[in-house]
């Protein structure tokens, strides 16, 4: 039987604790008690009752005492804590209960996908792997964000650029939200690819060099964000508002195709000027 690594065991414990403490007892219809609660959220015995497991089992899980819960127990805990879909998937990944794809992560774009990225012009498009490494991009995306061809390969990473590139750091008007969503997405990828030492080292680099990343990583938010909007301040054409969509190719499920389009007429006019330049 596959055992959990020490790091995964600790993270499983911490994640269960934080989700238990964030839960509002009133949402579960639990009876009011005369004595005020000393700790926030649900008690361990309440989680145990809701999940149909023993209190000792919950205690041992939260104390990282080497348990590897079965898929049925993971499902019961997810239901008991009312986890969101991305949080549920994260819990399954931490418990090593999710089926995994064979082979390692892609480091280059498949030729068919690279051609597709080019064909999507004039829509800005780029292809990434689960680490946020940028594997392919078209000219429109290079003009919108940065000329990726001028960067060293290790720097062609969307999170690295957002955190450590001087120009891109100031690019997003709502930087806190963009970074928070990116960190939550990266945490889900980290749990799903525990064997990826390159990703682990990348996260360690971010932790060491960016206090903002370290703060958000410690919050343990998990969310796979496939659609949304971003407000940008482009150095050449000024304010931009774009919608983005992230798609997963069926033949390459570990890769992400991101498309951007103007959210309003003013942005479209600015993009037209940018692409014509």
From TrEMBL:
Pfam families: HTH_31, MLTR_LBD. Residues 41-88 form the HTH cro/C1-type domain. It comes from the Bacteria. Gene3D superfamilies: 3.30.450.180, lambda repressor-like DNA-binding domains. InterPro entries: Cro/C1-type_HTH, Lambda_DNA-bd_dom_sf, MLTR_LBD. GO terms for molecular function: DNA binding. This is XRE family transcriptional regulator.
